[in-house]
Amino acid sequence: MPLVLGENLRNNDLAREAAAIIDTCVSCGQCMVNCPTFRLLQDDWDSPRGRINLMKEMLAEQAPSADLQLHLDRCLTCRSCEAMCPEGVRFGRLLDVTRELIEPAARRPLRERLLRRALRAVVPYRSRFTALLRLGQALRGFLPATLQVKVPRPRAAGIWPERTHARTMLVWQGCVQPALAPDINAAAARVLDRCGIRLIPARASCCGALSHHMAEPDEALAFMRRNIDACWPQIEAGAEAIVMTASGCGAHVRDYGELLRDDPEYRDKAQRFSALSKDIAEVVAAERNAGRLPPLPPQAPSADRRIAYQAPCSLQHAQKLKGVVEGLLKHAGYKLTPVAYPFLCCGSAGSYSILQPELAAGLRAAKLETILSTRPKLIVTANIGCLTHLAEVSPLPVKHWIELFDETLAAVEATQAASRANA
Q: Of the residues 107, 131, 204, 253, which has the fewest C-beta atoms closer than 10 A?
C-alpha cells in the first residue's frame, strides 16, 4: 500500500521523493544480513528495514523523533543493503533525503552541534586541515597514547613525473588525502606515466560529501558548483578523465549530475563532470586491457606476495566496481587472502569514525579480525578513510593498492634494467 504523506508534507518535494523510494521496499528483510550495524548491535531499528519503518512513521505523522535521528545517525551510508536488495531500493538516497528533512526539525544537543560544525569548518578546507594535522604531528610525542594513534606520521610523496604526453587526465586532490598521504596520487601519476598519460592535479577542493551526509545541502551544492567552475577550464583543455584515488570522493562526484539536476545553470556541466569521473582502478584496468600497461611477469618481484584487500563500501557498493582492484592485484602477481564478509564496512565511513567512535571501533575490530585470521603480510585498500581508520590499530602496514602496484612496476623495471646491464 503506497505511503500517504502527512498533510503538511504532501507538497514537499523531498518528502515525495522519500515516499516514492520507500514504496519500492517490500519489507522482505534480505538487507539485514548485509547491514553492519544490525550485525553489530542486533537491533531491528538499526537495520535498513527498521530505519525505513521509522521513516514511514515520520513521513505519515510529521513528527521527527529522537529515535529516528539516533538510528539514522548510526547508519554508515555504506549501501551494502542496496547490493542485497531484490527490489533495488535506493537506501543511500533515501537516507540523505530523510536526514535533510528531519535535521531542521529535530534540534541536536549543543555538544553534537558544535562537533559537527567544527568538522565542517576544518575537514573540507585543505589548508586548515593540513595546518591542524602538522601541529598534531609536531606534538605527537607529547600526546597520550590514545591520541597518538589518531595522528599518523608524515609521508613523503616521492617523484611526480613531469613528462609531457599526448593524453592528459586530472587527479582529484580532495581535502584530507594530500596532507595524510601525498604518496597515493604521486604513485598514481607514476603508474599512468608508464601508460603514456600525464596526470595533473584537478583544481578542486572538497567534493562536498561531508556536508551532504550531514544534511547541509546548500553547503554541499556550493562545494560542487565551485569544483565544476574550477575544473572546467582543465576539462575544456582536453582532460579526458577525472581520476579518483579516494573512492569516497569518487562515489559522491559520480552523483553530481543527479544532485544538480534541478539547477539549469549547472545541470549539463554536472552530468559531464560525473561522466568524466573514473576510479584509478577503472583507468588502470582499461590501460591493461588496451595493452598500454607495461607487461608484468607471472610472479613480479616483491618482498611478500600474500596480501589482504579491504574493499571500501564506496567502491564496491556505491560505484559498483567490485572485483576490479582484485583483478589488478592478481595481475601483478599478488596472492589475495580470502577475507570473510568482504561486503561489511570497516567503520570509517567519512566522519562516522569521529561522530560514532564506539560503533566505528567495533566494526573495525570485526573487520581486522577477519583480515588477520588469513595471515596476510600486508593490508591494502582503495580509500584514504579506510586506510587511516584501519592503520590506527592494525599490527600490519596498510597501503593504498596503487602504491603497491607502482612498487611492483618499479621492481620489474629495476630487474629488467639489471638483466640488460649484465647481458
A: 107
Mean per-residue pLDDT, 314-323: 95
Query: Of 74, 101, 85, 123, which is closest to residue 12 (Cα–Cα)?
Result: 101
Using the predicted structure, report yes or no on whether residue 87 has a pLDDT greater than 60. Answer: yes
Among 133, 173, 139, smallest CA distance to 157 is for 173
The secondary structure of 300-355 as a DSSP string is: ---S--EEEE---HIIIIIS--TTHHHHHHHHTT-EE---SSTTS--S-TTTHHHH
Kindly indicate the confidence band of residue 412, based on its pLDDT and cuts at 50, 70 and 90. Answer: confident
Query: What's the CA gap between 155 and 241, in Å, rounded?
Result: 27
Cβ atoms of residues 55 and 68 within 8 Å: yes
Residue 307 forms beta bridges with which residues?
336, 378
**Phi/psi at 177 (5° precision):** -65, -40
In the block, cell 584515488 appears at: 245
Give 417's pLDDT tier (boundaries 50, 70, 90): confident
CA distance to 192, 288, 338, 378, 405, per residue, from 371 (Å): 30, 28, 8, 10, 20
C-alpha–C-alpha distance, residues 134 and 120, integer Å: 19
Residue of 60, 68, 66, 82 lying closest to 15 (CA atoms):
60
Is the pLDDT reported for residue 300 higher than 80?
A: no
The 3 state secondary structure assigned to 159-198 is CCCCCCCCEEEEECCCCCHHHHCHHHHHHHHHHHHHCCEE
Contact 180, 133 (CB under 8 A): yes
Query: In 3D, which of 193, 219, 191 has the Cα closest to residue 206?
Result: 219
